[in-house]
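Input:
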Amino acid sequence: MSPPPLRSGVAMSEVAVVGFAGADRSLTTSGVETLVPVITAALADAGLARRDVDFWCSGSSDYLAGRAFSFVSAVDAIGAVPPISESHVEMDAAWALYEAYLKILAGEAETALVYGFGKGTAGDLFRVLSLQLDPYTVAPLWPDAVSVAALQARLALDAGLFTEDDMAGVAGRRADGPYVSCPLREHDVAEVADGAAAMVLASRDRARGLRERPAWISGFAHSVDPQGLGERDLTTVPSAVAAARDAGLTAPVDVAALHAPFTHQELLLRRVVRAGAYLPFGANAMFSAGLSRIGAAAVEVMSGRARTAAGHATSGPALQQNLVCAMEA
Amino acid sequence: MRRAAVLGTGQTEHRTRRTDVSMAGLCREAIDRALADAETSWDQIDAVVLGKAPDLFEGVMMPELFLADAIGAAGKPLLRVHTAGSVGGATAIVATSLIRAGAHRRVLAVAFEKQSESNAMWALSIQPPFSAPITAGAGGYFAPHIRSYIRKSGAPDHIGALVAVKDRRNGARNPYAHLRQPDITVESVRRSPMLWDPIRYDETCPSSDGACAVVIGDQAAAEASSREVAWIRATAMRTEPTFYAGKDHVNPRAGATAARAVFKAAGIEDPLAEIDVAELYVPFSWFEPMWLENVGFVGPGQGWKLVESGETRLGGALPVNPSGGVLCSNPIGASGLLRFAEAAMQVMGRAGEHQVAGAATALGHAYGGGSQFFSMWVVGRQP
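Output:
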C-alpha cells in the first residue's frame, strides 16, 4: 500500500529553498563547532537573521558521535536564547528538511533553518553501521557496511544491470586494482568524512522577498523498505522508486544530486531519478550528506544553471530508506 | 490551520524488564492496541513517526530501520525523532504536523524504550574526547534544582512526599503502570532511603521497558470515527541551551514560553480554570509544584500550595497525573508520548479507573535534557 503523494496543488511552490551552505570535508573535534560558520553562511546566503528563523530542525546520530544526547551540544552552536522552536531527527538532515518543510506547509512556520552534522571519521564507520542491523539475528555477526553493500552490487551485476567498468566510471576510474569487498574496489566506496550542512527554507510569501530566484520545492517524499536483505529487491530499490514517484518526478530533471555511498548505488539510483546531468558525489559526510546533496541541487536552480533539479538522500543498509526532493525555478 | 485529532491510543504493560518480547514485540503491543482503539487498520496508516531517547539505551543504531516492517512503516514514510526526554511529546507533535500539512490522513506515532536491552548508565557515562561531560545520573543532576526551589518558595519538606503518594496511588488505578502502590503513605515515603537530597527512593521514577502508540487523523478521519476523538487544539515545542548566563533551572524560560504558546494557540486564558486535567512530566516528585508554576497554572512560589491543598488529586480542581505519571512508569523515550496519550484518553473518556469525571480539555507535557527541551499539547473534546 503506497501513501498518497502530497497533493500537488497544495505542495506546489508553497515552500522554497532560499539559502544553503555546506562543509563536506571539515575537520572537527566533535562535529558541532563546524556548525557555527556553516549556519552563519546559510543565513547570509538567504539574507535572513538568526532571530528571524521560526523553526529549527537538525539531523545527527549518537552512534556516530559515540555518545548519548550528542545533538544537545549543537544547541549551543545555534544560539537558543531566548528559547527557540526546535526539533531533531536521529536521521540524515534531509529528513529534518522534510519535517521543516511540513511545518511550513502546515502554517506553523514561515521560515526554517535545517542543519546536519557528523564526525564520521571518529570511529570505524563501516563497523559502527553494522549496529543498524537486526540486533537479534544479524548484528551479532558484525557484517560491515561495505560487505552488505557488496551483496547488493553482486546482485545488480549478476542481473546484468551494469558492469564493474560502469561502476568504476562513476568514480572516473577503470575497474582495476584489488577488491575491498568483492565486487567493490576502493574507488567504489565513497570517502568517509566529517561534515556539516545548513539550509534555509521559506514559505511562498517570505521566499519572494528573500531571493530573486529561490529553488521552489515542487515535490518532496520519502519511503522505507523492510530491512532484511532477503525481504526486498535490492536492485530495484522500491523505496527510492516510491519517493521519486511521490515527489512527482515523471520526467527527467535538468540536474540531480544523488546520495550514493557506493558507485553501484549511484547507478541503481540513476535508473530511478532520471536527469540530464548528475552532480558528482565526493565525500560521504554522514548525517549531513543527504541534506548537502539537496543543497547542491538547489544551488543549481538558484544560480540559474538549471530550471529543474532533484536532490536525493539515503539511509540504512543497502539503500533501505530513500528521500527525493524535487525543485524548480 | 487544518484540524487534527487523536483517534486512538495504546500502551504496553510497563515493567523493569520485558524479556517476554523483543523491541518489535514491545512496539507492536502498543501499536496493536492503538489501532484497535482507533478502529483503524494497517492499510489506513499513511506514515509512521517513531520516537525514542538515545540509541545507546538499547545498543542499536537507529532501531527504526530494523523495526520498519514490524511497526508497519515498510513502503511508507518513516521519521525518527529524538529530542531527549521530551521526545515522546515531540513524536506526537511531528505526527500532528504531518496531518496539518495536508500530507496524510492518518499517521501512527509510536515511542518506546527497552532499557533492559542495554545499560542506560553505561550509555550515559561514555566520555568522548573534546566533549563536555553530560553529568550522568538524572537524580544527582536535578536535586540541586529542587533544593533551590524549596529555598526560594519556602515549601515545607513533605510536599514531595505528598506528590509521590498521590501518583503511586493513582498508578494503582492504572492497569499498565509499572509501580502500583495503593497502600503508600507520606510516612512510608519519608522513611524510604535518601538518594539525592532531598529526593528519596519513593519520590523517584522507575526505569521501565515500555511503549506507547497514538493514531492521529485529519478532520475527515476524525469525523468518520464512531468513537470519541481528542481534538488537538494546539501544540508547542521550545528549546534552550543546557547552560547559559541567566539560565533558571527551577523555572526554565523554554518551558514557560512553550506553555504560553500552547495556551495562546488553544485560546486558553486561565489555564487553572480551563484545563480539566494535566499529565505533566514529573520524574521526581518535587517537579510537580515546579512545573505547576513553570506552566503557569499558578504564580511563582504557589505550586506547592496547590499540591498541599489536595487540588492536584483525582477529584481536585486540577488533577495532575491521574495515570500515575512518570513516577509510576518511565520507559524514557515513551514517557512523553504516554503523557500526551493519557491527556487524550481523558478527553475521550477512555481512562478507565483513573478517569477524571467530565474532562473536556487536557494538557500533555514533556521535557528533556537539562530542563531545556519542552513539548506540550492541549487536547479537547471539542476542536
